[in-house]
């Protein structure tokens, strides 16, 4: 009996909760709500309403010193150079041997494990290495810094081996010998500030490698060399770079109606919808932005670019972002469509913030040379253009 009463009570409670939580009131219940307090969901669809819109793309000077990966290689639209600098630690006794020319480097090589790829693996990957003679720093390093960099014109790399999991090559032993001389005598020894790795003219693809980050155990590249002191001392030294940066150069595309996004170079896009016909006194329930990828004009890598970042612009001319630009909206990809919820941006515009449009960038912009093309506002096929669908509430 107790079990039956308990079951009956629970059933009654569930029924009451179901009625009270029903979001679609019955005709009886609706009469209890004053008309002025009733709200209705409404839809605003830029595709259905043929809302005016405008897209564009532009280059952006990106400082890549904080990138989690470094890129090397080239293809038909861009190329990336990579700089490494090493701080070789040796015991004082060994440094003294170097000073007295009793210790020599007999062989040197580098190993680098790719963690990013762009381009068919059957395409050629060929690089050269040159000694850098002018000082540089990752902070603020960009394309202009690369133009002012002083380095030799003698390739010190040989025996390049490239597989899916490892890039390996030899360096001339005297290169590392010079670095050690510079370490113990920076006054008279030749100036040495590491290496610059450059793709050769026959290189046709990109590879990416883990960048150096202190206290993070990753598959970073290593310099290996063998020290020898007659008659019996031989030691192998393994050193990771303490400073690295890559710089991508290339051309901004022309004669296209697409929005273009490119990493490292970098290229960003802007998008504007004229939603002045949308009422101001609304509460935005949901706003979904949809962008379609032009797969024919897209060149993506592995891992692929599966998401985009969206920011609100404060000025569409200067591309300056609003003060709350730290708030990031993510568009994720399903098939050839990137989509995401931009409700907060629409709500800000409808609450008085000037609508200057949005800025779109690759989520892997710092370490990807991918070029993602998105159909723009001027595409002849209206169905492919950007779409914005807004669900909102307005008091009657």
Describe this protein's structure:
By secondary structure, this protein is α+β, with helices and mostly antiparallel strands. It folds into 2 domains: 39-60 and 266-395, Jelly Rolls; 69-249, no CATH class. It is 15% helix and 38% strand. The chain has 7 helices and 24 strands. It has helices at 2-21, 27-30, 46-49, 92-99, 143-147, 173-184, 343-350, and strands at residues 39-45, 53-59, 69-74, 78-85, 104-112, 114-118, 127-131, 157-162, 167-171, 195-199, 206-210, 222-229, 233-239, 243-250, 259-262, 267-273, 283-292, 307-315, 320-321, 329-334, 337-341, 358-362, 371-374, 387-395. Strand 18 (307-315) and strand 19 (320-321) form a beta hairpin. The longest helix has 20 residues, at 2-21. The two termini are 51 Å apart.
Radius of gyration: 30 Å
Tally of extended strands?
24
Rough outline:
elongated
Largest sheet: 10 strands, antiparallel
- The domain tally reads 2
Low-confidence stretches: 1-33
**N-to-C CA distance:** 51 Å
Going by helix content, strand content and strand pairing, the class is: alpha+beta
Count of helical stretches: 7
Percent of residues in beta strands? 35-45%
- Average predicted local confidence, pLDDT: 88
Query: Helical proportion?
Result: 10-25%
């Amino acid at each position: 009996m107790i079990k039956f009463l308990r079951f009956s009570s629970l059933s009654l409670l569930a029924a009451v909760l179901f009625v009270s939580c029903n979001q679609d009131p019955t005709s009886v219940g609706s009469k209890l709500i004053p008309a002025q307090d009733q709200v209705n969901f409404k839809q605003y669809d830029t595709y259905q309403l043929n809302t005016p819109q405008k897209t564009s793309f532009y280059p952006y000077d990106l400082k890549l010193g904080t990138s989690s990966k470094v890129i090397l290689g080239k293809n038909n639209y861009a190329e990336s150079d990579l700089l490494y600098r090493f701080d070789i630690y040796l015991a004082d006794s060994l440094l003294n041997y170097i000073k007295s020319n009793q210790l020599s480097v007999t062989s040197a090589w580098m190993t680098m494990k790719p963690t990013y790829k762009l381009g068919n693996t059957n395409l050629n990957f060929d690089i050269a290495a040159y000694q850098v003679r002018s000082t540089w720093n990752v902070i603020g390093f960009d394309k202009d810094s690369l133009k002012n960099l002083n380095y030799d014109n003698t390739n010190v790399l040989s025996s390049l081996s490239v597989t899916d999991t490892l890039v390996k090559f030899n360096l001339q032993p005297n290169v590392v010998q010079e670095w050690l001389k510079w370490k113990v005598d920076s006054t008279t020894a030749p100036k040495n500030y590491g290496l610059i790795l450059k793709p050769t003219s026959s290189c046709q693809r990109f590879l990416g490698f883990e960048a150096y980050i202190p206290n993070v155990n990753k598959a970073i590249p290593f310099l290996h060399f063998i020290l020898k002191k007659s008659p019996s001392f031989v030691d192998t030294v393994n050193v990771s770079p303490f400073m690295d940066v890559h710089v991508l150069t290339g051309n901004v595309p022309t004669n296209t109606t697409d929005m273009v996004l490119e990493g490292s170079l970098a290229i960003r896009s802007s998008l504007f919808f004229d939603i002045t016909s949308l009422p101001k006194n609304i509460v935005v329930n949901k706003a979904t932005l949809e962008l379609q990828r032009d797969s024919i004009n897209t060149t993506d890598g592995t891992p692929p670019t599966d998401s985009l970042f969206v920011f609100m612009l404060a000025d569409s001319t200067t591309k300056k972002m609003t003060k709350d630009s730290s708030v990031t909206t993510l568009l994720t990809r399903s098939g050839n469509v990137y989509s995401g919820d931009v409700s907060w941006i629409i709500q800000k515009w409808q609450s008085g913030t000037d609508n200057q449009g949005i800025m779109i960038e690759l989520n892997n912009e710092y370490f990807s040379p991918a070029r993602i093309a998105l159909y723009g506002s001027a595409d002849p096929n209206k169905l492919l253009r950007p779409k914005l669908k807004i669900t909102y509430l307005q008091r009657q």
